[in-house]
Amino acid sequence: MNVCSVCGREVAEDSEFCIYHRHALDNLRVTFGDWKRALEIDWQEYLNRVHELDETGMWVREIAEHLMPQGSSSKLQ
Amino acid sequence: MSEVKKGRVSYYEFKRGKDTLVVAYALGHLYDLRQTEKGWTYPRLETEWVPKYEIVKKATVIKPIIRLIKRLAKEADEFVVATDYDIEGSLIGYLTVKYACGTDPANAKRMIFSSLTAKDLENAYENMSPTLEFPIIEAGQVRHEIDWLYGINLTRALTLAIKSTAGWFKIVSTGRVQGPALAFVAKREQDINLFVPIPFWAIKAMGDHDGVKIELEYSRKRIDIKKEADAIGSELQGKQAQVNSIGKKKSTQRPPVPFNLSGLQAESYRHFGFKPSRTLVLAQKLYLDALISYPRTSSQKIPVSIDVKDILHGLSGLKRYGSLAKRVLDGGMLTPVQGKKNDPAHPAIHPTGVKPPRRLTPSERKVFDLIVRRFIALFGEPSVKESRRADVRCNNHLFHVRGLRVLKQGWMAFYQPYATTNEKEFPPIERGDSIKLTSVHVTDKQTSPVPRYNPSSLLKALERENLGTKATRSRIADSVRSRGYVLNDRFELSTLGYALFETLERYVPEVLSAELTRHLEKQMEGIQDGNTDREQVLVDAKTELLGILERFRVMEAAIGNTLVRGLQRYWTEKQEIGPCPTCNVGTLNIISSSKTGKRFLGCSNYKEGRCEQTYPLPQSGEISPLDKMCPHCGYQMIKITSRRKAWETCINWAECPGRRDDLEELEKRRKSHVKRKMGGKSK
Predict the structure, then answer these.
(1) Considering its fold, how many domains does chain B have in total?
(2) Of residues A23, A39, A53, nearest to B194 (C-beta)
(3) B246, B389 in Cβ contact below 8 A?
(4) Is residue B274 in a domain?
(5) B-chain residues near A28 (CB < 8 A)
(6) Nearest 5°: phi and psi at B18?
(7) B193 and chain A in contact, CB less than 8 A
(8) Measured between alpha carbons, how far is B27 from B23 in angstroms, rounded to an integer?
(9) Does the beta-carbon distance from B225 to A56 stay under 8 Å?
């Protein structure tokens, strides 16, 4: 069984993540536009900031943490 | 009237005219459902009613009650059911007449009342119904049967799936309403976990006019681009603004509507923090003392048949409410405000005007106070408020200055301290005045996720979706917590809750579906209204359930695996308290000593021989980590919850300088306890 590299759950179809972390990544991508417009920041800075906020959801924080070391070269951006 | 004691139980006997009346009580349900086929397995679809003590071992007081009723019934010429007039009460009466009295319920009569005052009871006796309310009884019976079928079979299916996978016997329960309630909580948790905040900026300004400080509110509550917000802040700093216009608006507010159960529960949670189930228990006690009307009602109406004048006269004799009740009586406007919801069985919750026969507990007094003041407020005039708004301009930017005052208290005067208005004084400014902007602040903000459910909002969600009944909803909200599916009163889903939700959603989503439960509720209402019969509803429910259980059986191994993985995660998390402050690598876990059986905190790095840090723990109560550090020593805080109380301390409590006084006090008490014991022995 292929497992999510973030939490160890079974991966969702066509994804390297489980349904929750895939969904969290989708939300992260959608919201990046708002942050970029608001603060003129790049993807890496965005991940850092989102990761630090108390309001950020647990799965979003986990996927942000997972993506942070990959930097702005991440294919998942 | 005299009470006749028979061992642990009693009955009452008195004369009325030529008749001798004997009043015996039940204690909730005396009979319960039991499967007729043997085996702790599923499916089990056939049931019978048996005395409750045959199923629930703790229900020992039921046996002497049934025995007493059986004995008294032999001498009786006529049977009158005088239980609460609702589904459960009617069913309790029916089953008692049928099985304990051993008579045909068709011959029994029924007293119907909404409060336990002598006047209401006498009236109910004089005007009793010649028959029992069979449609309500049938609906009650089928509700019990369907709840039993779904609860027992699905719980067994889940539990046996775990047993066949891992060999553990761990009961994991679900039920007809508990499943959808869990789904509400889980879906809310998912929304929170998937939430990405979005930044925005708000502008707050303070101004000065003739030495008076004025708070100004920027007309745009949210600015989405930081550069723009900063530019506005810099542009406006120290500038003069002009008062362009001042507007005034009067608004009236009618009194709040009479309480139904969910209204009372919500208000009680808001003001006192009482869980809905607790409010119901307190209201039930007040009802049994004849202080308030029947609390399990959906009605928000006080019908004309209720003598409100008499109730207000009664309340005017109570020290706390006398002056308020007299003001209403003197005003002469004795028509209460009415709400929209109706309940044909009972009126809205109201006081009876009877003086408390005993000293109420502080919690009972709070709920009673809320009910009485709400009732008196129903007769109040509308309150009148005046809001003022000045539009203040600076360049192209618009600010508002606001004020609010109460012109007439009206009903709010009766509903204190529960009715509040945040009055705000409007500053002494006029059109054309200028205000100097002394400080303009740009504040960083971000959007927030939807809040988690609390016991009150979950109850409202169940009511909105028409799941459960007014009597059962608060119990369901409690059961989601007591099963370990949520962590606390904030209804944060536990790993166990997640595991169960994920499993059910994937393999048997019908169990989580509000639609299925709503459909069954509708059918049960149909029985009550005489549109369908019990047998048909039961056959449909069994067919539906069998389909679910068959699918369950096919996937039992997969379901078992998912649940076992979830349980393992849950148990691991329950043992974890936080990172080890000594090695900063391992995790502090709750460990039980194999020698002494006593528990303590130990570092997970112990086995590798890398960290030997341990901390003592209190030996009773459930321990959970808190998201804060001790203000005295900086160590992780924990919460200990026992049956009687919950308290907080730090893991370093034995050494913590801030807790030395507590420890000394504890030691003192221990010594005096030992001394007392010794003294007792020597005598």
Answers:
(1) 6
(2) A23
(3) yes
(4) yes
(5) 196
(6) -85, -10
(7) yes
(8) 13
(9) no
Q: What is the 3-state secondary structure (H, E, C) of B474-515?
A: HHHHHHHHHCCCECCCCCCECHHHHHHHHHHHHHCHHHHCHH
Q: Which structural domain range is residue B340 located in?
A: 261-377
Q: Is B568 on the interface with A (CB under 8 A)?
A: no
Q: Report the residue count for chain A.
A: 77
- Token pair recorded at residue B571: 């148990």
The string of pLDDT tens digits covering residues B331-381 is: 888 999 999 998 888 999 999 999 999 999 999 999 999 999 999 999 999
Residue B248 in contact with residue B378, Cβ under 8 Å? no
Task: Report the pLDDT value the prediction gives residue B644, as an integer from 0 to 100.
Answer: 65
Q: Which of B377, B410, B428 is the last residue of a domain?
A: B377
In which region does residue B238 sit, left (phi positive, over 0), alpha (psi from -120 to 50) or beta (all else)? left
Q: What is the CB neighbour count within 10 angstroms for residue B550?
A: 10
Q: Where are the domains of chain A?
A: 19-71
**Structural domain ending residue among the three candidates B361, B377, B393:** B377
In a domain, B573, yes or no: no
For B100, the token pair is 């304990």
Distance of CA B577 to the CA centre of its chain: 29
Share of chain B above pLDDT 90, in %: 68
Q: Cis omega before residue B417 (within 30°)?
A: yes
Q: Does residue B127 sit in the same domain as residue B54?
A: yes
Q: Among B193, B198, B199, select the one facing A57 at the smallest CB separation.
A: B193
Q: Kindly report, residue by residue over B669-683, the tens digit of the pLDDT.
A: 778 877 776 665 443
Q: How far is A48 from chain B (nearest CA, A)?
A: 13
- Do both B462 and B533 map to the same domain? yes
- What residue of B is the nearest CA neighbor of A7? B569
Chain A touched by B226 (CB under 8 Å): yes
Q: B132, B60, B151: which is closest to B91 by C-alpha?
A: B132
Q: Does A6 contact chain B (CB < 8 Å)?
A: no
Please, are residues B75 and B66 in contact by the beta-carbon 8 Å criterion? no
Residues 439-458 of B with CB under 8 A from A: 446-449
Q: Is B437 part of a structural domain of the chain?
A: yes
Pairing of strands B240-253, B636-641: unpaired
- Please tell me whether the peptide bond between B43 and the residue prior to it is cis, using omega within 30 degrees of 0: yes
- Inspect the interface and report whether the beta carbons of A60 and B193 lie closer than 8 Å: yes
Strands B212-218 and B240-253: unpaired
